């Protein structure tokens, strides 16, 4: 399996980069324009310099650990000088150390969001859309019980745990970096002081006699050889995030799909024409039915001035004619009460609070009633020939057909 590593300082918009191809068959390394990067690697990693990744401790809810969201950004707000929205914060893992203070602590990696976006846009412009983001700090090898220091002769960075590390300030052969001393003092307070510090040099002439450092730090210091991010094993590091490949159709696939697209477009156009024709036929039938209803209404009631709703006006005129003949209408109070009594015969006493009637409509207000019982009442009222409208769980309006 091959791995392409791209060194990504989060500065201005990138146009060139250093890269390394980790491959058992043909490893390589170089520097050049982004468009000239090797292609075909199984994995791609974006390596962020150690000085541009802040690794901090915090305590975050379990549900927020796998999300790089605002909750994680606010968890490290005190450790950063920028606004939370300016950072991308990723959960690395739980710090496995002894001591009550360290128990349950979470390690979070903080990266400048805008700087990472510039790299994302630049890589997408050259066709790279799927890659991991790695911190250079966590690529450094580390043995159990020890710290590891990458040193170029004047400055470097330390990996102090599986998910912890930091960049150092300046130092020289006579005096170690002050930040390294402070990190050791903090580890002493936590009860996690390392047994030794392993030094990996990553620049010519960076190795020297570290006896003065041992005396100043109080920890054995031993040089283990050369190291840099290019030579780190493929399985090294902890991924800060995954930029997933966006779904796109290749140009060759578009060419092959063009005939199918034409067929689909023709089918859609045909269905669209058929749908418009159906709507036109239905509209014509509706207008014809309304004209027929209006003609029948005018033949029955020639004195009507205007016809706005033939069906409603016919029902009203029919009710008036029945009343003039002394015959009750279905919307009168007495027939509606009779149907209402049939529909509410199984209702327990006291469940119906009020009944009001006006112009062929009757409104029923119930006391507390369960939803299944309300549905049964509505079904029985509909069976008696009433039109039922339900408002909430306590109010029903009924009218005659």
CATH class of the largest domain: Alpha Beta
* CATH topology annotation of the largest domain: Nucleotidyltransferase, domain 5
Q: Please, how many helices?
A: 8
Main β-sheet, spatial strand arrangement: 3-2-1-4-8-14
Strand content: 25-35%
In the CATH hierarchy, the architecture of the largest domain is 2-Layer Sandwich
Q: What series of H and E elements makes up the topology? A: EEEEEHEEHEEEEHEHEEHHHEEHEE
- The percentage helix is 25-40%
Description of the molecule:
The chain has 8 helices and 18 strands. The protein has helices spanning 70-75, 113-125, 178-190, 211-217, 251-300, 310-324, 333-343, 371-383; strands spanning 3-7, 16-22, 28-33, 43-48, 54-58, 87-94, 106-112, 131-135, 146-151, 156-161, 164-167, 196-201, 221-226, 239-243, 352-358, 361-366, 386-391, 395-400. The longest helix is centred in the C-terminal third of the chain and has 50 residues, at 251-300. It has a 6-stranded mixed sheet, with no helix packed on it. By secondary structure, it is of the alpha+beta class. Strand 1 (3-7) and strand 2 (16-22) form a beta hairpin. Helices cover 32% and strands 27% of the residues.
Spell out the blueprint of helices and strands.
Blueprint: E1 3-7, E2 16-22, E3 28-33, E4 43-48, E5 54-58, H1 70-75, E6 87-94, E7 106-112, H2 113-125, E8 131-135, E9 146-151, E10 156-161, E11 164-167, H3 178-190, E12 196-201, H4 211-217, E13 221-226, E14 239-243, H5 251-300, H6 310-324, H7 333-343, E15 352-358, E16 361-366, H8 371-383, E17 386-391, E18 395-400
């Amino acid at each position: 399996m091959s791995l392409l590593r791209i060194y990504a300082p989060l500065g201005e918009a990138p146009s060139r980069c250093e890269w390394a191809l980790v491959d058992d068959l043909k490893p390589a390394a170089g520097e050049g324009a982004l468009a000239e990067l090797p292609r075909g690697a199984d994995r791609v990693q974006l390596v962020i310099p150690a000085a541009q990744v802040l690794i901090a401790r915090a305590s975050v809810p379990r549900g927020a650990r796998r999300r790089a969201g605002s909750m994680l950004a606010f968890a490290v707000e005190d450790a950063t000088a920028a606004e939370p929205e300016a950072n991308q914060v990723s959960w690395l893992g739980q710090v496995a150390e002894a001591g009550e203070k360290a128990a349950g602590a979470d390690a979070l990696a903080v990266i400048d969001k805008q700087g990472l976006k510039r790299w994302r846009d630049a890589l997408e412009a050259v066709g790279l859309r799927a890659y991991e983001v790695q911190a250079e700090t966590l690529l450094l090898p580390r043995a159990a019980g020890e710290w590891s220091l990458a040193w170029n002769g004047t400055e470097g960075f330390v990996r102090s745990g599986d998910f912890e590390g930091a960049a150092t300030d300046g130092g020289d052969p006579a005096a170690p970096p002050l930040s390294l001393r402070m990190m050791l003092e903090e580890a002493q307070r936590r009860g996690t002081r390392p047994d030794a510090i392993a030094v990996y040099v990553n620049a010519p002439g960076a190795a020297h006699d570290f006896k003065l450092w041992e005396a100043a730090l109080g920890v054995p210091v031993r040089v283990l050889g050369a190291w840099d991010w290019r030579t780190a094993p493929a399985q090294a590091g902890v991924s800060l995030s995954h930029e997933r490949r966006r779904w796109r159709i290749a140009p060759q696939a578009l060419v092959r799909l063009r005939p199918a697209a034409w067929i689909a477009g023709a089918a859609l156009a045909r269905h669209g024409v058929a749908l418009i024709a159906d709507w036109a036929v239905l509209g014509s039938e509706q207008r014809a039915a309304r004209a027929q209803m209006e003609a029948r209404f005018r033949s029955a009631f020639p004195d009507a001035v205007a016809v706005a709703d033939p069906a409603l006006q016919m029902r009203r005129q029919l009710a008036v004619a029945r009343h003039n003949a002394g015959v009750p209408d279905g919307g009168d109070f007495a027939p509606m009460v009779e149907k209402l009594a049939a529909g509410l015969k199984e209702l327990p006493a006291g469940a119906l609070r009020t009944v009001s009637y006006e112009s062929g409509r009757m409104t029923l207000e119930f006391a507390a009633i369960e939803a299944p019982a309300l549905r049964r009442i509505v079904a029985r009222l509909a069976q008696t020939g009433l039109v039922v409208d339900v408002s909430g769980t306590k109010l029903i309006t009924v009218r005659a057909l």
